[in-house]
Amino acid sequence: MPTVLVVDDAAFMRMRAGKLLSQSGYEVIEAENGLDALNKYTEYEPDLVLMDITMPVMDGLTAVREIRQVDPEAKIIMVSAMGQQAMVIEAIKLGAKDFIVKPYEPDNVLASVKKLIG
Prior knowledge:
Layout (H helix, E strand, L loop, with lengths): L2 E5 L3 H13 L3 E5 L2 H11 L3 E5 L7 H11 L5 E5 L4 H10 L3 E4 L4 H12 L1
Parallel strand pairs: 1-2, 1-3, 3-4, 4-5
């Protein structure tokens, strides 16, 4: 069963994404900020990371950079609010593979995840 690390500082968003993914056959690990994500990535080595951009402690862009140093092949999908296009472009340059705009449609999330890890 593929594992997805869901990273968002909003518990509601983690719960929503986690429920969607687990109902679709994925194992879900949650992290509440980029530093937590980095620690959980190195501990669990998930198949994919679904990561918010704006978070306290360590933001998503920094977390992408740090995770890609640990694992250059890391598959990361960024989740951004409208108006964060510049940050999304930066995340893609840092190695993120895709992005989803909040509020997201469940079908878009699943399509992006399936595209990267089946």
